[in-house]
Amino acid sequence: MKEQSALHKIDAMLGQYHKFDVSLTPLVLKVYLPIIQFSDIPVNTYHNVRHNHSNYELQFFVEGNDLVEINNYVIPISNNSLLLITPGEYHRQKMTECCALKYCIRFDYMITDKTLSVHEVPWCTEIIKILTESPFLHIENCDMLLHFFNQIREESQKKGLFYFERIHVLLSDLFISIFRLIADKFHGHQSDNRDIEKEDLVLDLFFEELYSIPTLTAEDMALHIGISVRHLNRLLKKNYNLTFRQKLTATRIEVSKGLLKSTDLSIEDISEKTGFSSVEYFYKWFKHNTGMTPGEFKRESIKNCFHESTF
């Protein structure tokens, strides 16, 4: 029953994204726009659990100050700042007194013009190099981008004549502006799958929503997406370079690390909440992945937190 409810939740979440194909020759950007964030006002999408995505995630912070933790980096966030997180990078928004309001957009890119060499388009070569080599990009004082986000929100809210086409144009202008900012600061195959974009997005949602189910299998995931287990394994290899079991265990370990750091839950409760079949199994895999037992990790986190607070 819990698994079925969570699967329905994933389907509902997929329905909360508008998908756009934005062409910036020779690139086509596959853009996923969360409907709820652009329907009325920017909403607080605070996410304190460590997680990652198979897509690029673009976060634009409208107002408020906050901290975002990406792997071992902690990035202070201010008004009108832009944060671009690359696929596979674990991150979370840290708890502060006032959570920042932000817009989030996910995207991927494809090179579709086979007659045009990427090397003939210098900006494309440079942007792809920056995107693929950096775990994240952080740019402050991006005031000029706020107009695009607000216009997209207004079009989504009013739903006037040709509003969808208007959003498409705004997204094109938005990404041109973002790529220009990235280039300024950091200078120096069409698939025949029936819905490959949905498959990539559902990978993230599946692990984010269902990691706590102890009996979860690759067969469950493949059946829900509507693909074979063999094809699922190819997608997992492409997006995470992991098997299903490795990705599921890594997700559970990352979530448990966040709970050990930020809550007073017992190790037994955390083991149950993160889907491990037993406390002993949790101990085994936690130490295998981190080199420490859960208790040692928690004590080390408390010690580090105390050390940071003294400076």
SSE order and pairing:
Blueprint: H1 2-14, E1 17-24, E2 27-34, E3 56-63, E4 66-70, E5 73-77, E6 81-85, E7 91-94, E8 101-111, H2 122-133, E9 136-139, H3 143-158, H4 163-185, H5 196-210, H6 218-225, H7 229-240, H8 244-262, H9 267-273, H10 279-290, H11 294-309
Antiparallel strand pairs: 1-2, 2-8, 3-6, 3-8, 4-5, 4-7, 6-9
Helix pairs in contact: 1-5, 3-4, 6-7
Low-confidence stretches: 189-194
The dominant shape is: globular
Number of strands: 9
- Overall pLDDT, averaged? 81
Euclidean distance between termini CA atoms: 49 Å
CATH class of the largest domain: Mainly Beta
CATH topology term of the largest domain: Jelly Rolls
Structural class: alpha+beta
Tell me what the structure shows.
- The protein has eleven helices and nine strands.
- The protein is an alpha+beta fold.
- It has two domains: 18-185, Sandwich (Jelly Rolls); 211-309, Homeodomain-like (Arc Repressor Mutant, subunit A).
- The strands form two sheets. A six-stranded antiparallel sheet has the order 1-2-8-3-6-9, with helices on one face. Strands 5-4-7 form a three-stranded antiparallel sheet, with no helix packed on it.
- A hairpin with a 2-residue loop joins strand 1 and strand 2 (27-34).
